[in-house]
Amino acid sequence: MKTILLTGATGFLGAEVYSFLKDRNHNIIPLVRRKSGLKGEIEIDLCANNLKSSISNLPHFDALVHLAAYIDFSTDFNPEHFCANSLATNDLALLAAVRNAHFIFTSTVAVYGKKTDYIDENTSVNPDTPYALSKWLGEEFLRRVCPTYTILRLAGIYGRNGPEHLGLNKAISGALRGEAPVLAGSGSGKRNYIFVKDAAAAITCVLENKITGTYLTSGSEVLSIREMLDIICEEFLPQAKIKHQEGFSETNQIMKNSPRLPRTRAFKEALKSL
Q1: pLDDT at residue 263 in the model
Q2: What is the rounded distance in angstroms from the CA atom of residue 64 to the CA atom of residue 262?
Q3: Which helix (DSSP H) or strand (DSSP E) does residue 112 occupy?
Q4: How many CB atoms lie within 10 A of CB 10?
Q5: Are 182 and 115 found together in one domain?
Q6: Binning pLDDT at 50, 70 and 90, where does residue 246 land?
Q7: Which of 246, 247, 238, 248 is nearest to 271 (CA)?
Q8: What start and end residues bound the annotated signal peptide (predicted)?
Q9: Residue 78's pLDDT is what?
Q10: Confidence band of 72 (pLDDT split at 50, 70, 90)
Q11: In principle, which of 83, 113, 187, 256 could form an S-S bond with 225, CB 3.0–4.6 Å?
Q12: Same structural domain for residues 148 and 166?
């Protein structure tokens, strides 16, 4: 059993990770921005000016899983990007280094840029939005200050009640309410998004096995957006048809999943578990 400091514990991925770790009998210390009712939670605002002093007196922990993030894919600069994703990561990494703890940081496929169609371990980073840049800076801070770290560059994450900045989550939520998916554009762009439970399993795997380094974390199945929406209809609304509206043409963005991480399930298999 390990004692784990967990940021973002009430978020979409964080709640799943919390459940995974609890089921495996780890001792979890959730860091939350506001009270949520989680056992043992500690209220800390990661964007507060006094963050360093606030976290200096935290209890003992063996590992720090940093999931809290400010996500915004616009091209507009927002200081919160860098406060939550970069500066807070640096302060937490310094604390983990002092405590000799394993730091696990969830980064993003966005660090490779919007137009990179195939991504493997040799692909160069090209953070072309403020969000992507803030995550890449968080990675760099972590590498420089914390000897024992894992960076997981995650593809888009889908599941029940997932955040709707990923259009697939909007389609899933709508289908569960009986609403047909809406397809903007041709839907020809291919992706290998990752199911939220598989993302949580990857985090648990690197934590328990102390796997360090930087890893690409995605689903195993490559599908076009149109194919995913067809499967959603097939599973939840067999009599429905996809609704179409005008949209931009989509490029592919396919990421090679690291072989060191656990198996991920196919899209239809994931939907059947919802």
Answers
A1: 92
A2: 20
A3: none
A4: 20
A5: no
A6: confident
A7: 238
A8: none
A9: 80
A10: confident
A11: 187
A12: no
Q: How many domains does the chain have?
A: 2
Task: Show Cβ contacts of residue 83 under 8 Å, excluding neighbours closer than 6 positions.
Answer: 46, 47, 70
105 with 174, same domain: the answer is no
Q: Which of 88, 177, 186, 175 is nearest to 138 (CA)?
A: 88
Q: Residue for token digits 């935290």?
A: 58
Q: Are 144 and 8 within one domain?
A: yes
DSSP secondary structure letter of residue 182? E
Q: What are phi and psi of 219, to 5 degrees?
A: -75, 165
Range of the domain at 184: 159-190+222-254+263-272
In this prediction, residue 248 carries a pLDDT of 74
**Residue that the structure tokens 């209890």 belong to:** 59
Q: Which two tokens stand for residue 75?
A: 């091209």
CATH of the domain at 249: 3.90.25.10
Domain co-membership, 208 together with 105 = yes
Give the pLDDT confidence score for residue 8 in this predicted structure. Answer: 96
Q: Please enumerate, as own/partner, the contacts of 118-127 that have beta carbons within 8 Å and a separation of 24 or more.
A: 118/252, 118/254, 118/255, 118/256, 119/216, 119/253, 119/254, 119/255, 119/256, 120/216, 120/255, 120/256, 121/216, 121/256, 121/258
Phi, psi of 82 (to 5 degrees): -80, -30
The position carrying tokens 């298999």 is 269
**Same-domain check for residues 207 and 167:** no
Please check whether residue 187 is in contact with residue 249, taking contact to mean a CB–CB distance below 8 angstroms.
Answer: no
More confident residue, 227 or 1: 227
Contact 179, 117 (CB under 8 A): no
Same domain, yes or no, for 89 and 163? Answer: no
The verdict on 133 and 31 lying in the same domain is yes
Instruction: State pLDDT tens for residues 86-111.
Output: 999 999 999 999 999 999 999 999 99
Amino acid at 50: N
